[in-house]
Amino acid sequence: MTAVSGAWHWLTTAAHWTGPDGVTHRLAEHLYFSGVALGLAVLLALPVAVALGHAGRGGTLAFALAAAGRAVPTFAVLTLLLVQLGSGSDWPVIIALVLFAVPPMLANTWVGMREVDRDVVEAARGMGMTGGQLLLRIELPLAMPLIWTGVRSAAVQVVATATLAAMAGFGGLGRIITAGFSRQVTAEVLAGAVLVAALALLVEGACAGVQRLVDPGGRPRARSAGDGPRDRARTTPGDRSSAPGPEEVPQR
């Protein structure tokens, strides 16, 4: 039996999906860690990045945190938090994942706010919009595609990285992988890896679907009456193209 067929057999065995060590329970733990961490990261990163981007400040801080988030190993942070906080709660895992998720959200949100067309902002300000109206009606809607890209990137990374919680003795789909290693069952290790990869792909697909809804530029633009004047401006009264068509000739 090859590793692939062994993993398929393991995944299709009903006994592996039930009980405290079953896939269903481990998946619920994995989603709990990922969901709580992602929600806290959104609450922490987005308001700060939106405020800094609206004010045009903090770009250096945003990119410095993004670089630090990529450089610092998550497992090292998790181990340090485990030593400081102990293993009596889930907070070491959640805090480590929050610290991992904040940098891409912070950087993308700041860039999204600063990439809003300044001419549009000045035109809205000239119409008498207040700072709050400018933020809610102009900047946030136009920046939303990049903001959501940061959330999407963080979500996929958090789902994949939450597997490391098992190496510190916590739950999640990573426990299937560590259990396979401890029992030296390659099929179980591969089955756990497949489950994590499938979950990350599902999260990516769900986020991509939401992004199509929040990205106004991603929809095909319908032709409108405003498309015509540009073409008409290129014609002159003497052009043959400006002559009325057969349907426009008045009938006698």
TrEMBL record:
Region (Disordered): 213-252
Alphabetical list of CDD domains matching this protein: TM_PBP2
Every ABC transmembrane type-1 domain range: 27-207
Transmembrane feature ranges: 31-53, 60-85, 91-113, 134-151, 157-177, 189-211
InterPro entries documented for this protein: ABC_transp_perm/SBD, MetI-like, MetI-like_sf
Localisation: Cell membrane; Membrane
Protein name listed in UniProt: ABC transporter permease
